[in-house]
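User: two proteins, same treatment. go.

Assistant:
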Amino acid sequence: MSRRIKVQLNRVEGDLELELDVNNGVVTDAWCIGTMYRGFEQILLGRAPMDALAITPRVCGICSTAHLFASTLAIESMSYITPPANAIRVRNICLLAEEIQSDCRQTFLMFSPDLCHPTYKNHSLYPELSEQFMDMSGNVYKNAVIQSRHIIEIVAIFGGQWPHSSYMVPGGVTSLPDIAKVLSSLSVTQNYIQWFEEQILGCSIEYWLTLKDRASLEKEFKSNKAAASLMHRFCTEIGLDDLGSGSDLLMSYGSVIDTDEPKHRLRRSGIYNIGSDSHSELEQHLITEDISYSWYYDESSKPRHPHEGLTQPKFSSDDQRYSWAKAPRYKGDVVQTGPMAQLAIDRDPLILSNLREKGCSSWLRQFSRIHRQAKSLLLLKEQLESLLSNIEQPTMAHKPLIDGEGIGMIEAARGSLGHWLRVEDSKITGYQIITPTAWNASPRDAANQRGHIEQSLIGLKITDEDDPVEIGHVVRSHDPCLVCTVHVLGSKKKHRYGVI
């Protein structure tokens, strides 16, 4: 029996709409749909470059630090500005704090509640899952709300507010760090680490990072009863480690800038091919955007590099187009981005071991957000301690802006974020933003390649087509942010899964 269903997911950033062909309980085709246009790229045209620092953080209320970072890097690259080491430290600290809170909230407030779905009520682990992860009442759920709220305070300590801060500027940061700010942030970080070790990992972060392969992880989880172990045991038992693979190409722009060599990243950039188990350098000039299935118009039918990109909306209901999201491609290929990709490209042994033995899956994608928090907490602490040791150093390098083209590429919590800027006569004449979700949730392209999330849904078995919890597992493992990508507006109907 064949059926076409439309699904609107809650517990994602923005309302996400999917259209699926289901045949005898198996997804045979998928369309990932962005349903509203807002057009920040058009808003920025004709403005002064510095205006981007106030406007782009408002693209998203979750990753506004990352957008501010990318916009600042774009202006600095255009004007050949290198900020001092302390400014880089402050930027890194705030980006890491935002990433940690996002990983925490996505894992325990958005993904985990689906593990308490009534479909699983007869599973032996269901009582434990409900006690820890039930929406609004679970122990881990409630503590994640508190801890994620505190860790993001670090951005407000250094930047004055969060979200939509504007403390990063070309040449440095506007807020002066002092001992009190650093010590307060270290206290917040240490409190988060204590909770994370006790309730989530069940061991110290230092011990956790000695787990280098899948076998050692499985051995640890046999005796460990903390939240990460509970999630792993359940998700593997219900088969989430075999679902939702999608594209084999992973991408990361690199993250956490090296204070000794600002052109380098402490977390490397690059491309990783799961199938061939090979790493390669990232070449940003090979990035293009395709609008063959998107509601935009362009006299040229060829994909464009973002520096030549156009954002000219044109809605049509009578052709093949079905989304306000564009289709970014790398060398014409579909890629996926996010924490799993970032860690694999940075040669993390535990993630690479899992990819080599089991391949990409919804659970590994989600597990990477737990594993990345452990690594990021230590990195955050190191950056704060380094700032404390160099507290008297400057945070600003003054240099005039010039016309030209700039590129700002950074890793947001959800993956690779890029801003491409062009300025003429001190006015913005071109601005293109490619968000992580644009990569993951893109529509088809001129070669009729499905976007990554669309690919990840093909072959998925659905138990109840009227309440497809399996779709929630796969899609939420990507932490899609349609707010960033196309600024989605839903139908105003609120359903658990919203099957229409």
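Protein 2:
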Amino acid sequence: MICDNREHILVIKLGALGDFVQALGPFQAIRQHHQSAHITLLTTSKFSDVAAGSDFFDKIFTDVPSAWWHFGERSRLKGFLNRSRFTRVYDLQTSRRSSAFLMMFQGFNPEWSGIAKGCSHPHDNPSRDLMHTIERQGEQLHMAGISNVPAPNLDWFDADVDHFSLDENFVLIVPGGSARRLKKRWPVDKYIDLANNLLLSGLLPVLLGGEDEKDVLESIHLGCSQARNLCAKTNLFEVAGLARRAAAAVGNDTGLMHITTAVGCPSVVLYSAYSDPVLCGQRGEAVNIIRRDSLVDLDSNDVVCALKNVQGR
């Protein structure tokens, strides 16, 4: 039971990675608006380290029900919400799932910013689903009384990457993405062409991705043996650290590219017709988005030119 007299705020952001990165600005704005409050983040365990490193939150709670029929998990969350006595909730997930959490409160309803039926501070713009994530969240917070949502200061989002023994002449390659949406990926043979072109230009290709993308990264490494394959060898802070030191980055529309762009790495992001950069495109100081209906039609030479342009070379 919470016994102090501070205001108690709950922020909800469950994922995915790109969405979480694009919520860092709103997280910072909420922290600045409620400077003396105790702020809890409700998220999933894979984002807890980044959330803790941000210093935007006093507590991080990750015991989120993985499915509605997991009654034990739902009961634990319901107990936590009612013990914590939150006075205001910022639901930045704004999904049917997160909106249902409002119904878990018993005997009182906290102020609620989101889209839950009957909430006190609804984001009721009928065009909200046509807005880019960053503008949509900014407008949601504005309607809840937080008028200033600037780009976040991400100086904390960094790591020592000397143990990878890379000099400054390397380019990050992020060839993976959701296994359920393979049409968002540029073909492996195109990435092999790109990697070999980079080597001819004196730039070392460095392959990034998780264990689920092992086959893709190994195939590229097989076609370009001089590339460095860092599959499953980096945490999110190290990805940010590598991006800060890389000459550039190129990859599909996937979460790691939101990190590279957010920390200022000159980045080229590849989109097919299966995702829309107008709604979720990466933002940053130097971002070049290339979109084709089918990424099969995108030539590696076009990507090389785009990389040179985004680097100002």
